[in-house]
Design a protein that fits this description.
Strand order of the largest sheet: 5-4-3-2-6-7-12-8
Order of helices and strands: HEHHEHHEEEHEHEHEEHEEEEEEEEE
Number of domains: 2
Number of helices: 9
Length: 342
Amino acid sequence: MSLNKNLHQAKREKNDEFYTQLTDIEKELHHYSQHFRDKTVYCNCDDSKASQFFQYFWKKFRSLGLKKLVTTCYKNNDPESFSLHMSKDSAGLSVSKNGGRRVSHELLGTEDFPLKGDGDFRSEECIEILKQADIVVTNPPFSLLREYVAQLMEYDKRFLIVGNMNAISYKEIFPLIQSNKMWLGITPKGRDMLFDVRSEYAEELKATKKEGSAYRIVEGVIKGRLGNAAWFTNLDHKRRHEPLILYKRYNSEDYPVYDNYDAINVDKTKDIPKDYDGAMGVPISFLDKYNPEQFEILSANDLRRNKQTPIKPHGLIKDKDGSIGGQPKYVRIVIRKRNVQS
């Protein structure tokens, strides 16, 4: 039985039909060049005939100093599947330094290989390929992100993937961010990412959605727009070590305490007070500026002011329990400064 029964629900939700553009890949990946030298990169949700991730690594195989590049993707005959290319058989592609195809003045060997199953990233044969890889880079199905990240963690893989920003509040994801096993990439959150979409879905967007909101037209081509897409990684980058400059001072009027948590509320990341050393609830957008040497992320469950406040599996201040004076606030991450500025 196929492991992809959830894909049918995913396609109906239209959450998985977004294919990362080369321009967005280039903007993000060039910050990680030092991580790829002599490494095997696995793109396990990518058809080599359509994937821009494959194109990026194929063109930069020599300059990045890759050891090997492998791609596999889910295949079926469902015309409404989010796969751009349908085939009766699933297949992968392997690129290595051996062989006879010349790219960027270096001889590269390419090998198409059949898969026994449907190419599901959770299948045994794809997991065997995963075990041999050093770094995984792809845009996995958004609806399967929990399972996808869990697999990466199980096999202790380095990765750089695209996901939905909302995943930060998942009970399976936020603890990884809190423990610095996973963090956000370089591309600032709030910056729109445009994605290639299936032609049928493009027409549906044009007919039912507003241009500039759900989609944009670029050189006559309809592109899906996601303002909440984000890069997730455990590859270190220099920006996560840049200190956040703080200039505000604490006062009880501007920084009220939550009704149910022993922490003050901070509405904007730039307004984090420089002279407060206690727990603070900050917007999720704080993760764009998160420096683990400057701040630590706490669990809101440890700051409950009474036992009636339910324990949240994700450890965030969220929902009706995250109120001030009875008025709910948006989702908050609880942080504390490691070193108080004088």
